[in-house]
Structure formats: C-alpha cells, structure tokens
Write a structure and sequence with these properties.
The chain is of the alpha/beta class. The protein has 19 helices and 13 strands. The strands form three sheets. It has a seven-stranded mixed sheet with strand order 9-8-7-10-11-13-12, with helices on both faces.
Length: about 450
C-alpha cells in the first residue's frame, strides 16, 4: 500500500497544516469547512460548459428515476422507485461536478457535503448493482471522449510505485490502528459465521493468512518470499511455522512497525523486511505469497509482475495470491478511465479480473492457475466492521490532525468498497499458481 507528495491533481490525504481560510460548503448538512490548499477540487466547483452540465443532469436524473432509491432534493422533489434515501442538498453543484468529472465528481460532491445518505452503503450498493446500465449504451461508446484519463505520473514504474504506495500506506500507522484489529491486517478476513463481529475479526484475519500459507505449502524449513509486507502478520505466522521469510515493501511507515511487531513476536532472526520494489528482489523461494498487492501493479506491468513471480520460484514451488477481482467485461470497459478511488485513495491502482490474471500468467510465463477460491461476502463484512470502527472513532481521527473532508472521503471509500462486494461487482479470491498448473 520514501515519502513524497503526489501531483496537485491527486491531493495527499495527510493531516492538515496552516493554510488559507477554508471555504464552507453552503446548504450542506454539515456546513463542512473545505481547505482549498489541501482539497482544491473539493473546495471549488469545476469548470464545465452549460451543455455538459445539462446533459449530465438529464442522464443522472433519468438513471435515478428508475433505480430502487429514494432521492430527495432540497426543493422537496423526489426521484426513484423507493429504497435507501439519498439527499441532494446542492443539485446544481452535484450535476456540475458529475458533468465535469463523472464518478470523480460524484465522489467529490459527497466529500463537499453536497449530498449524503442515511444508509450510504445501501445507496452505493444500488448504484453498483446497476453500474453497467447507468449511462445509456450509445453514450458508453463515447467513454474515451468524456472520461478523465489516467495521469502519467501515476504509472507504476519503480519510482512511481514508491510515490503511489506512500500516498496511501504512509498516511499514519496510528490512523490505520484506529479501525483495523490487533493483527493490523488490511485485507479481507475469512469468517466462520455471519454476521461478523469485532470480536471475531482477529481470528478471521489469521484464518485468512493460514489458508493462504496452506495453499502455498509453507511449513518447517520453507523459504518464503512475501510481496507486500503490510504490518507483518503474514510474515509472523509463516515464521511461526518454521519458515524463513523475505518480505518486501515500499512503505517506510509499515516497514518500521512490521519490524517492531516481528521482533516482539520473537522472529527477528527468521524474517527479513526489505524496503524495495518487487522487481528488485533476487533469489529463489519455495513459496511466493502476496495479499492484495497485485491491485497496485497496473495492467501495463502485469507481465513483469508475473515474470517476477516465475523467476523467484524454485523448482516445484508454489505461488499463492489473494486478489480483488472484477468482471472481465467491466475491466475492459474501465481500465483506461481515471477514477475517484485512484485520485484520492489508491493512485495507480487497478483491480484485475480472473481472466486477466490467468491470461497474463499464461501469456508471459509457464505459470498456470491451479486453484481459485472466491469469498467476496467475507470482504463485505470485513469492510463493514472497519467502517463502523472508523466512524465510531471520529474524535480520535480528528485528534490525529485529519479534517472533516478526510473523514467523509474515508467513509465514502470504505462504503464504496463494501457496496462493490455486496453487489457482486467485486470479488476477492485466493489463487494458486504453479508451473503448468500442477497441484
């Protein structure tokens, strides 16, 4: 998931410092103060032609009118066929932002407090359910004309990857500790029962790790490469099985805390954590494991990523990945589009499809998918618990120096992700890759 500021178009979500006087969003439920230095594209309305805004208004209102939502506008008018309530406080700004930036504008409008929802996940789940049909088919063909393009600075070159990972994972270890459980695992857990509870989360996270280590065949004496250290939980559990682990990360903040946790667990002599890119690793390993890191690779570099997996694997070795996936047709339709998540949360990120994983591996390596198991409903529950913990600790988030716009952004990110899994638009899978696909 070295610290350097991203481009101005991708505001870094760090605690605010001295800045010009914030602008208050008029007519919104929270009257949120928006710092124009930190949130320039939220503090001001984008430039958009009258025609583009009018077209956006027409498309948005037609889409909302046929969805199972209840959309209430400030003037008392409503749209929708009934369902979770969405309140639009500033319809002019709402439509203008969508006209200028599509879904980026939709998210920025929420950050600005121009619309809200009592059940944000419910509203976003309805939208995710209908993602493929919200825009008329004939207009979808014009996506390349109106949709924002990926910024060149977000490419996942070795240098770009460092900046992209730093943007998210070097925010603050204390911030992540507020909503993650004691394992500090920032990926889907695997529960035994639903609904999940906070008390079940640590065991469910360890169960997820153990399933992946079992898939990779990690045991006494195994040489293990982990791509993406996180805060060290997988490395600790692998070392507890008697393995020797080399783990790589690009996050300085995560590495510092992971090293401390590994030492406290008594495995400093069995685990090495390197601050380097996956493309810089050398050696051969019995098992290569990675949890939800491929989403940060980018389609351009998927061939290099899979080639690295193959090159680092000892004869007879196994690769076990945990990866978020989306339907292949949606990947093809959206892979070149710049999204709200990429702008504010995961610059350079792209969720693959199952087909893309299998096709890239087969097209560039001798690796083949030998097993694949999906458990998206478990991610929805994991995200619900994180979101509830985050929102319940708003005062502590504020005390760390993060402002109200950041809190709205983070709540939207967690709810948006949860909705993706609840709707089935997203899945998460544990995938085994071996030479020739042998088990």
């Amino acid at each position: 998931m070295t610290v350097s500021l991203p481009p101005a178009s991708q505001p870094r979500a760090t605690p605010s410092t001295a800045a010009p006087a914030p602008r208050r969003s008029a007519g919104t439920p929270c009257g949120a103060a928006v710092d124009p230095a930190r949130w320039p594209d939220v503090a001001r309305l984008p430039k958009a032609s009258w025609a583009r805004t009018a077209v956006a208004r027409l498309i948005v209102r037609r889409a909302l009118a046929r969805l199972p939502l209840t959309v209430k506008f400030r003037d008392g008018s409503t749209l929708g066929t009934g369902g979770p309530v969405m309140r639009v406080y500033a319809p002019g700004a709402f439509h203008r932002r969508i006209g200028a930036g599509g879904l980026i504008g939709f998210g920025e409008s929420y950050m600005a407090g121009e619309w809200t929802a009592e059940d944000l996940v419910g509203v976003l789940t309805v939208l995710a359910d209908h993602a493929a049909t919200l825009v008329p088919q004939n207009l979808q063909r014009l996506r390349g004309v109106w949709a924002p393009k990926q910024p060149a600075a977000a490419r996942n070159t070795p240098e770009g990857s460092r900046d992209n990972i730093s943007h998210h994972y070097d925010l603050s270890n204390d911030l992540f500790a507020l909503f993650l459980d004691e394992t500090l695992s920032y990926s889907s857990a695997v529960f035994r029962t639903f609904p999940a509870t906070d008390a079940l989360l640590p065991a469910a996270q360890r169960r997820k790790v153990d399933r992946l280590l079992d898939l990779a065949g990690v045991g006494e004496g195994s040489e293990v490469l982990e791509i993406g250290t996180g805060w060290g939980e997988l490395a600790i559990r692998a070392a507890g099985r008697g393995a020797r682990v080399t783990s790589v990360t690009l996050s300085t903040e995560q590495r510092e805390l992971a090293l401390r946790r590994i030492a406290e667990a008594g495995f400093a002599d069995r685990v090495e954590v390197l601050l380097c890119d996956y493309r810089q690793v050398t050696g051969r390993y019995d098992a290569v494991v990675s949890v939800e890191m491929i989403e940060a690779v980018g389609a351009e570099f998927w061939p290099a990523y899979f080639a690295t997996l193959e090159q680092r694997l000892a004869p007879g070795g196994r690769v076990a990945l945990q990866a978020i996936t989306m339907p292949h047709e949606r990947l093809l339709a959206s892979k070149d589009t710049y999204t709200w998540i990429q702008k504010y949360v995961f610059p350079g990120g792209l969720i693959p499809s199952q087909e893309a994983l299998a096709q890239t591996a087969a097209g560039h390596t001798g690796l083949r998918v030998a097993a694949s198991d999906g458990f998206g409903a478990h991610y929805a529950e994991t995200l619900r618990l994180w979101r509830e913990r985050f929102e319940a600790r708003a005062d502590e988030v504020d005390a760390l120096g993060f402002d109200v716009v950041f809190r709205r952004m983070w709540s939207f990110y967690l709810a948006y992700s949860e909705a993706g899994f609840r709707s089935g638009y997203l899945d998460v899978r544990q995938v085994l890759l071996t030479e020739g696909g042998a088990r």
